[in-house]
Structure formats: structure tokens, C-alpha cells
Amino acid sequence: MHAMQYEITLPADYDMGIVHERVATRGHLLDAFPGLGLKAYLVRERGADSPVNQYAPFYLWVAPEGMNSFLWGPGFQGVVNDFGRPVVQHWTGLAYEEGSASASVPRAATRLRAPLGEAVPPGVAVAEAVARHAREARRDGVVASALAVDPRHWELLSFTLWAGPEAPAGEGERFRVLHLSEPGRAELGRVGTGRAELGRVGTGRAELGRTGPGAQAVATRVR
Fold it and tell me: Quick check: 107 and 165 in contact, CB under 8 A?
């Protein structure tokens, strides 16, 4: 599993209705995208909860082939054409949990970043974070939650979808969910970091040829 997000910050007087309309008319185009676990079409609007207007879609990819296909294909090129090329943040997935409100349509989301401390070995810190994430995902109102890590900056990322119209305070940055594409959501929980999985991940030459940037290319225009 791979987590990915890009943030497009818009002018303070930007009509966010334009973003809402784009998502309403085009968001469904990724509802069957190969390799995509889920994509949450997120927005923040300048006001009490946010200092900026922002379109910040968040992705969970089941396989890197799907992520590559999107980034090198016409879908992401549409974003580049309209807004310029944003920085694409990505994290290695650690855990995914369905919540107590998993049958609900998410209306809000939170993103919490935290440094992976140096006081304990990385493996211990990650194991503790995964255990904590499993407990927190059982809270009322959670639709689904993912935990990921950026080993370049040693940063943990917790991303949670909520059933209520407002995400709880104290959970990090808060977003509204305009649409959720979830073609491979059922697959996300099967992509773990358990010991049994480690022996299946090789670096053989035969495997490398199966994960090229052109794999599963899908010609679909979406933003």
C-alpha cells in the first residue's frame, strides 16, 4: 500500500464552487481505476478551520503500478495543465483499518503528521504506532483509517475518514470529502507489513520488469 497526496493552494478569493463542480462532474472517472484502493477528493476552505483555500486529494494505492499509471498518464497531466505541477507527497503504507462506521459515506477527513522519534529503534516505533492506530480506528464515527511513514523525513502520517459532517477537533488538519472513489478498498486491508509478507518481497530482476511506469496505463482524463 502506498499513500499519496498533492495540495493545490488557491487564492483567498477563489470561488471554491469551481472545485466542487469539477469533482461533481469528473470525480467518478476514477471509480474503477486499476490499482487504486481509494481516492478521497478533499477540500479546505479559508475560514475558522483553515487558513487557506485548498484542493488536496488523498490516495491509497494497492499497488505501485496503479500509482505510476496515474502519475505518468493523462489524469495527472490534466492537473498539471490546469494548476501547474504540484509536489506529490507519498508515504509507505503501514496499516489500514475499516472503522465502526465503515458502511457510511465519509463526509470529513483528518490528516495528522508526527515525527518518528529517535528515542527507540525505528522498528519498535513503527510497531507501537501500528498498534496504537488499530485501537484508534475503533473509535465512533471512523469510516476507515490508514497509517503510513515517510522514511526520508522519518514522519508518520495518520489519515482518517469520518462519517460526520465535521471531523473531531485535535485530530490534525481537517478536510471536507466531496467524493470517494474506492475501486480497491477491499484490497487495502490485505496489504500489510507482517512477517509473513516480508519473505514474499524480492528484488530479483524478473520482478523489476513487472513494475514499470507504463503498467496498467489507463487513458482517462480526471483531476
Answer: yes
C-alpha angle 25-216-36 in degrees, rounded to nearest 5: 50
Q: Do 187 and 62 touch, CB atoms closer than 8 A?
A: yes
CA distances from 94 to 42, 83, 195 (A): 22, 31, 13
Output the pTM of the full model: 0.86
What gap in Å lies between CA 207 and CA 136, rounded to an integer? 36
What are 8's three cell numbers? Answer: 493545490
- Asked if 1 and 65 touch (Cβ cutoff 8 Å), the reply is no
pLDDT digits (tens, 9 = 90+) for 41-56: 999 999 868 899 999 9
